[in-house]
Write a structure and sequence with these properties.
Elements lengths: L1 H18 L15 E4 L2 E4 L4 E7 L2 E6 L5 H10 L7 E2 L4 E4 L5 H38 L5 H35 L1
Antiparallel strand pairs: 1-2, 3-4, 4-6, 5-6
Length: 179
């Protein structure tokens, strides 16, 4: 069903938002939103450099063109990553500090905010679906019984997707609090 796919895409967006939450471990996905000026064009960092994790709390960024080191360093500093890059002239290292209890709680609040935004988006999709079905009934394209059946089906899908989102949030919170 079309609305289920839309809700699924919303869940995928929230998953990527969760992946970008820095959890004290080196995770290259936190750099997904960082772009670097490359020949006058904003280019995603992972398209101009290789990103590796030699140990659990360090990311190493090695640009394919060494003249980009300064630009990459500036891009990371101006992004919302929150880690100061260390440039040794060949590679850039990002060392992830151990999370404090206060920072864990902040990140948990951020995760809950992402969850709430996702649930609002899913409810908006449900509202659009319900309006569409009511209009179809009004135009004589379906009977009242069919409308009720579709509304129940859409509500089931909505409940399933909201539960999926809640489960993802619980997993992420457990990950944040267990580090």
């Amino acid at each position: 069903m079309e609305y289920d796919k839309k809700m699924g895409k919303t869940i995928d967006v929230i998953k990527s938002d969760f992946a970008s939450v820095r959890a004290g471990r080196a995770n290259s996905s936190i750099l997904d939103r960082v772009t670097v000026e490359y020949y006058g064009t904003p280019t995603p960092l992972n398209q101009v450099a290789s990103i590796s994790t030699p140990d659990p709390r360090v990311l190493v960024i090695q640009p394919w063109d060494s003249s980009l080191l300064g630009d990459i360093e500036r891009a990371i500093l101006t992004s919302d990553v929150g880690i100061n890059p260390q440039n040794d002239g060949k590679v850039i290292r990002l060392t992830f500090p151990q999370l404090t209890e206060e920072r864990r709680k902040e990140l948990t609040k951020q995760v809950r905010k992402y969850e709430e935004n996702g649930k609002v988006a899913i409810r908006n999709i449900r509202r659009d679906a319900m309006e569409h079905i009511k209009n179809m009934e009004k135009n004589g394209e379906m009977t009242e019984d069919d409308r009720k059946e579709y509304e129940d089906e859409i509500q089931e899908i909505t409940d399933k997707r909201c539960k999926e989102l809640s489960d993802l949030t619980s997993e992420k919170e457990a990950e944040l609090l267990s580090l």
